[in-house]
Amino acid sequence: MRDDTAARVTAALRPGERLVWAAAANPLRMARRRLPFAAFGLVVLVFFAAWMNAAAAAGPLNPFVALPSILAGLALLLWPAIAYLRAGRTTYALTDKRALILCDAWPARMRGYGPDDFTTLEVKIRRSGLGDVVFRKEDKAMIPHSNSQRNMVSIGFFGIAEPERVAAEVRRLAEAPVSN
Question: How many domains, in total, are found in the chain?
């Protein structure tokens, strides 16, 4: 474990909590998970560029329509790069009481998941030996306050070494009796 990873995890531990496992997130894995968004962003940009070209021939463009569309396409196109940068500042940890996801990138946040928060346990191992351990799935609204646009979001440790060993520790934590 790198020194900066160890320092982040140590700062997040509660009194009496013991570290079981920690690792830095894999930036390439996180960026790869966002590649479909980049492809869609490219389609959006090409569509709106063609639309703006046709609209400009007919008269002046309305910037309130054109600009948000271009910005949305750019955001989607850049999402893998943003995920890569954020993952470089993300640390995963498993203690004897909870799973932690610490992110020092803007906006900085720490999310902790206790045994009661584990809704699933899925392990995916790739040919490289790296894998994912998903311990929670959340139903999130893609559009705030909307019931029609929803998406299941997987929460866990992505692109980690020894995913089977980490999954066994998560399983042990989920099945452990609750202690105060």
Answer: 2
Using the Cα atoms of residue 83, residue 87, residue 90 and residue 93 in order, give the sign of their dihedral.
positive
What is residue 122's three-state secondary structure? strand
Q: Strand runs (DSSP E) across the chain, as ranges?
A: 19-24, 90-95, 99-103, 109-113, 122-125, 131-141, 150-160
- Please tell me whether residues 169 and 100 are part of one structural domain: yes
Q: Are residues 170 and 96 in the same domain?
A: yes
pLDDT digits (tens, 9 = 90+) for 50-60: 888 888 788 87
Q: Do 59 and 144 belong to one domain?
A: no
Distance from C-alpha of 26 to C-alpha of 84, rounded to nearest angstrom: 8
Whether 30 maps to a domain, the answer reads no
Q: Which residue type, as a one-letter code, is found at position 108?
A: A
